[in-house]
Amino acid sequence: WIGMNFPIDHLPxxxxxxxxxxxxxxxxxxxxxxxxCQTPFGLTVRYAxxxxxxxxxxxxxxxxxxxxxxxxxxxxxLLLEQGVSGPTISLSSQQPAHNLDELLQAGVRYxxxxxxxLELFAASPHHPNTVGLRLNPGMGSGHNNRTMTGGxxxxxGLWHAYTEQAVELARxxxxxxxxxxxHIGSGADPRLWGEAIDAALAxxxxxxxxTILDIGGGFKVHRFGDEQEADxxxxxxVFSRKLSQFAEETGRQLHLEIEPGTWLVAYAGVxxxxxxxIVDTGAxxxxxxxxxxxxxxxxxxxxxxxxxxxxxxxxxxxxxxYIVVGHCCETGDxxxxxxxxxxxxxxxxxxxxxxxxxxxxxxxxxxxxxxxLKQYNAYPDAGTYxxx
Length: 388
Hints:
Layout: E1 19-23, H1 24-36, E2 43-48, H2 55-64, E3 67-70, H3 73-81, E4 89-92, H4 100-105, E5 109-112, H5 115-123, E6 130-136, E7 158-159, H6 163-172, E8 176-181, H7 190-204, E9 212-214, H8 232-250, E10 255-258, H9 262-265, E11 269-280, E12 287-291, H10 300-304, E13 310-312, E14 319-325, E15 337-338, E16 341-345, E17 348-351, E18 358-361, E19 383-387
Parallel strand pairs: 1-19, 2-3, 2-10, 3-4, 4-5, 5-6, 6-7, 6-8, 8-9, 9-10, 12-14
Antiparallel strand pairs: 1-11, 11-12, 11-18, 13-18, 14-17, 15-16
Helix pairs in contact: 1-2, 5-6, 7-8
């Protein structure tokens, strides 16, 4: 499983550290797998660019035929600047768009996530007569509370009990809610996705003019240990059965949209760092590998207790137990926390390391370079390389 066979033998011979390295081949293969999925009444695959907004990744996915999901008006503007067509962009944002008129003029497909956002949309002189609505279906899923985007503890979307208020508000302005967007979080079990689409279809029943259902993202990848990989094809089969059954019962044929981010890019990227120091806390303590990277480049471990496979790039057979830490002046800059628990440590058995050795952090293509504590301690951003 390590890095889903990321071609580390193709790493540039001369490589500054720290640096992210991305495989174009792996990005393309994953995109083609997603595009090959089918549902009975059509499927749109949208890349959630918050996972990694590097211009070369956007350009590659645009050329391959993926559409895009933006989580802020600034992401939507970035996509437009990169030459992405407005109608291929869906915007669902916690914060009201700072440039709403500009985005609507460009044809960006807007999804209101609150009654206030729906009112702002209706007030724009450039709004079309259709709009999307993101609802919180009352259920969530994730490997911890910080990755759940549905349920009573989540602020994402309009709470489902207010659906009729949204419908009435739209009708007053002669606007049709034709797209329903939900997102419950990160899950892998197809049965869980069956429950998610059941909840979504129940909401569609309260939105008679909806023709497009966006089930969101959250398709997990296997990064470490016994983590479960989301089988996107199997999940789409579950979606297909549910959509076909809904069509038989109601006569409504819904076009489906999915928003994979992590699933598309995680395996295609690694972070290459250097061991800059090795310290310990005595016979009853730990041995720490200090790297020239940390939470300023990759925040997931310290935020979620997220796990990443690691490898010291040496040929030594001898192995030792290490706690791998970042270079930031924060006790929480731990790269090997306990699974799902950033408060605790978990050692890794790695090849015996020496100062100056390179260490690879795998599955760093998603939510690493794009989600980091930039400027902290004034450390410069990691470099970027692309390989074929």
